[in-house]
Amino acid sequence: xxxxxxxxxWFLANALLAxxxxxxxxxxxxPMLRVYQVVFxxxxxxxxxxxxxxxxxxxxxxxxxxxxxxxxPVASVLFLATISVAALDIGRLHWAxxxxxxxxxxxxxxxxxxxxxxxxxMAANPFFSxxxxxxxxxxxxxxSHGPYRFVRHPGYLAMLFIVPLTALALGATLALIxxxxxxxxxLFRAACEDRFLIYNLTGYAxxxxxxxxxxxxxxx
Length: 220
Fold this sequence. Notes:
By secondary structure, this protein is an all-alpha fold. The chain has helices spanning 3-25, 31-50, 53-60, 71-93, 101-124, 154-169, 176-200, 204-210.
């Protein structure tokens, strides 16, 4: 995938986010929502340059469907639903329990850290596909360096936090409803992928014995 195509996709993703935020919030004068859009855009731009172009192509258009084709679109809808509900709540409804500015700032700090972890995982793992499949067509092999030294699925760990933290950073606890469903799907996907790799990827079972935890050290 060329850099021009990747930049175009990045621009369209940010335009969609901005349009949804304005549509549901009803106005553009919400500081935390504007800050989130900047963070989303900057993290996306860093990711664009950090990951391998071949991986970007695979993530955008996997070369095979994989064993769980429904997970990706459902997760995408839940992410957009989190943004939409958050914008609706802080812009129009004001139903949810308000969060202090310091709590929102803390959520932004951890959100950025989670995004950095996800980018690190994608940069370290050229097989970080959106499809759960054995990528024999791309020379799929075990990756155990970078953040994979500490947990087996650092990318999913980042995703588990990014969407709920989005709701908290925007100060919209109502948006934790779709965000929590998103988190449950990520946990399910991580468990499925771990089991799939143990049985199908050479060396992964031994790696799983050395790196004991899937997502959170000392927990799971």
